[in-house]
Amino acid sequence: MPPPRVILSLLLILAPVLVVALPARAQVRIKDIADVEGVRENQLVGYGLVVGLNGTGDKLDSAVFTRQSLIGMLERLGVNTRDQEARLQTKNVAAVMVTASLPAFARTGSRIDVAVSALGDAKDLSGGTLLVTPLLAADGEVYAVAQGALATGAIAARGANASVTRGVPTSARIANGATVEREVGYQLASKPALRLGLRNPDLTTARRMAEAVNRALGGTPARATDPRTVALDLAGRDVVDALARIEDLRVAPDSPAVVVIDEASGTIVMGANVRVSTVAIAQGNLTIRVTETPEVSQPGPLSNGTTTTVNRTNVQVDDGADKKLGILNANFTLRDLVASLNALGVGPRDMISILQSIKAAGALQAELQVR
C-alpha cells in the first residue's frame, strides 16, 4: 500500500480532473419552479374614500367624483348635504383605488393586505384612514371588505420656495387591512388528476421533474406532456400527501441560451449556456473634443485700440489607437466571453454593440433579446 503522502499527492493531481468531468448542477425544489394548475390567486379591486388627511386631499372643485362620493357617504349616514353642496371645501378627503390579491384557499374571516392609490389630485395620503370599501373580483361579487389606517412609508415636506419628497406619498398599504367575506371553492383533495405548470417552460426540466416524481411515488404517475406541463395521475392516492412529497423533490432546471440587453439602462444579462464560436473582435472609439478658451487681447501702449476677447479653439481627436484585436476561440463559455471582453477594455455600452455584431455574424449561439 502506498504511503499516505503518495496518496495525498495523487488526490491533489486528480482533483482538478474530477471537478471538470463532473460539473455540479444547482438543484431546486419543485415548489420553487412549478405551480399546481388551478391553485392561484384572484385579483380584487374597489373604490373608496380616505379621510383624516392634513389638508393634502383632493380639491373638490376639480375632483367631481370625490365630491359626489363624499355626499353619498354622508347621506347614507343620515347627514343631508345637498343644500350645502357648493360650500363643501374640505381638503382632508381623497378618492382612492384599493387593490388586493385573494390567496388560494383563503377562508372566511382571514385577513389579507391591501394597496391604496390616490385617484384624484391628492398630494399625500400619510395619516389617512380608509373607510369601509368592498373589494370585487372579475365576476362582480364582493369577496373582501377593506378598512384601516394607511402607511405610506414616504416623506413629503413643502415650503414657500422648495419641497422635498422621498418615496411615493400617494400610494399606501394596509397590513391585514381586508377581511375575506367569500371563499373561492376548490376541492384539491378530490382531484384524481392534476397538472404541474413550469414557470419557465423547458422540455428538459419537465422530463426531469417527471422522472423525479416517478422515483419518489413509484410507478409512472407523472408524464411530461409539453414544455410547460407535467401531468399527474393520482388516482387511488392521497392527493395532499402526494403533493406534499412532490413539492419538496429537487431537480436541476435547464434553460435555453439567452442574452438579454436593456439598451436604456445599459444592462446585459447572459445565461450560463451561452456559447460563442470563433470570432475576432476589434473595438475602438472615435472621440473628438472641442475646447473653447477665451483670451483677453490688450491694445498696445498709447494706442487708440480697445480691449477685446478672442476665442482660442483646440480640437483633439482620439481614434482609440490603443485598442487591440481580440480573438474568441470556439465554444467559449459565459465566463470566458466576459473575461475576454473585459480584457479588451470594453464597457457595457460597447459590449451591447459587440454582442449584436457577434449575433449578426452567426457566432453567438444564443437567443438575443433587445429591450
TrEMBL record:
GO terms for biological process: bacterial-type flagellum-dependent cell motility. One of its GO terms (cellular component) is bacterial-type flagellum basal body, distal rod, P ring. Keywords: Bacterial flagellum, Cell projection, Cilium, Flagellum, Periplasm, Signal. It is found in: Bacterial flagellum basal body. Signal peptide: none annotated. InterPro entries: Flag_FlgI. One of its GO terms (molecular function) is structural molecule activity. It holds the Pfam family FlgI. Belongs to the FlgI family. Assembles around the rod to form the L-ring and probably protects the motor/basal body from shearing forces during rotation. The basal body constitutes a major portion of the flagellar organelle and consists of four rings (L,P,S, and M) mounted on a central rod. This is Flagellar P-ring protein. It comes from Limobrevibacterium gyesilva. The gene is flgI.
